[in-house]
């Protein structure tokens, strides 16, 4: 469930802006991001290895970020890319349930990890919860296209479990 959360009005400042790309492309950092609402979501992340981690994440709803970039109705997928080039392609319905998270269990992610943000949404596998998010890009893939063909996992492995 989403709920507005007043504990997190202060976003940690980001070292690199986040690009959101739809019909318009926006580069969002400090002040622009702090204008957007923060929500919390409790999500269990399931990894291919079978491990499960449940945490409460707080961040900006993906829907808010995409609205700011005027995303087309034709969008089928959201490409989420890290600052190291790790890139995942997520069904837009699943992505719209997600958050660009800055906090895990009430603590800024950066206090415990070497990255500041994480793309969190229920219903995708752990590998698609991209850490150190640099880009959110709306895409329209034809029904015959393979979403995995636009993914890239080899360029960065330091954040894998
Ligand atoms: N940027 C980035 N995000 C990433 C990865 C990565 O290598 N780079 N690995 C993914 C994989 S394969 C998994 S299983 C989870 C691991 O998250 P954890 O460290 O919280 O268990 O992060 C995902 N997000
Ligand atoms: Mo993984």
Automatic annotation (TrEMBL):
It holds the Pfam family Oxidored_molyb. Signal peptide: none annotated. Residues 19-138 form the Oxidoreductase molybdopterin-binding domain. Gene3D superfamilies: Oxidoreductase, molybdopterin-binding domain. This is Oxidoreductase molybdopterin-binding domain-containing protein. It comes from Halorubrum distributum JCM 9100.
